[in-house]
Fold:
Amino acid sequence: MTRKLFGTDGVRGRANEFPLTASTILTLASAVGQYFNRDQKRHRVVIGKDTRRSCYMLENALTAGFTAAGMDVFALGPIPTPGVGRLTHSMRADLGVMISASHNPHYDNGIKFFGPDGYKLDDAAEAEIEALMMQNIAPVDAMDIGRVTRLNDSIGRYVEYAKTTIADRGRGRLTGLKVVLDCANGAAYKVAPAVLWELGAEVIPIGVSPNGYNINDGCGSTHPDKAAIAVLENKADVGICLDGDADRIAIIDETGAVVDGDQIMALLAADWSASGKLRYNTLVATVMSNLGLERYLSGLSVGMRRTPVGDRYVVEVMRKEGFNLGGEQSGHIVMTDYATTGDGLVTGLQFLSMLRASGRPASELTNVFEKVPQILENVRFARDTAPLENPIVQKVIREGEARLGSTGRLLIRKSGTEPLIRVMGESEDRDLLGEVIADIAKSVAEAG
Structure:
């Protein structure tokens, strides 16, 4: 079965437009409820959300659908996506749901589903759920309608767990560190400052005043400029920037320079390999990760497995082959020893604990490898067009590949969450690379 409703990261779109209308989401929840409600026991689902105004509408639609299907709902309130994965498993729930569009603007939203093991549902499950939506879904008897409970200690549970993730290596305190913390006015606006402060850090919080519309707006991991300025103004040791649902991170060193996910993964992989913690001595990364990362790891005799873009594919390989560290250049870092999905806060804690233990400035710690010049252009297209199927675009791409030859590579793909074509290339010859990327981006824009 093929999926039409689900993308690479759940159901995503503009709020109050298909598929993120109250009626569609109610039907979706009813189908998910029927998928999981296959025996006579009481079934439970936990629902978390970020701070978008539309989360109220979607949370109520999901709750109505789940309770109509006989599931008991536990509403967590605003909480990071990895917190939902964690509580789904720890509370023995059959299902976890996160309402968020991650790093997207406030007018977008999305729904991510987690199975009882805390991992996101696989393609086969999502396809079966879509098939159920096309059928007549019979509601349960009035005596079997589910209950709704607001779990008031959900944040406290996650705070306490997050703190334990740096205690296993004798690095359990952050005393003496001054940290600028940008929570993107999103799901971590309460959790993250509490965790860092309780671990002893001096915290300078920004992006902690959500109003329903300012999530990711000029702040967070996709807009780190404000945090970089705050690091310099406050003479902070480091800046930590999370995105709207806190499943990804950007780090800012003491000079205001932004560190991407590739450098973070290189640092973690080297540290874990040296301590014998890196399973099979291998890092899992996507095709977007810089060639310099691969070369650096090779010099340490550390393997690197590449996957298609998307954290679900990274996690898929990690689970199948037993790896425990992987991620994306965007800062979506997956550490299965601690979380079932990317966790920006826990990644930040790992980095901060290493920073404190090293006694070195962040700029030295994060300058792990020399990058091969890389250019990424995002080209927006109309939803009813298919630029990559255009013969002219395909011809320009072939010509670009020929011009780069063996000295570089191109990766042209459609975003799984937004109407964007991502045009990425790498080459030791930056000028040539810039010309090639510009030509392709122009052709895509004209076709879309």
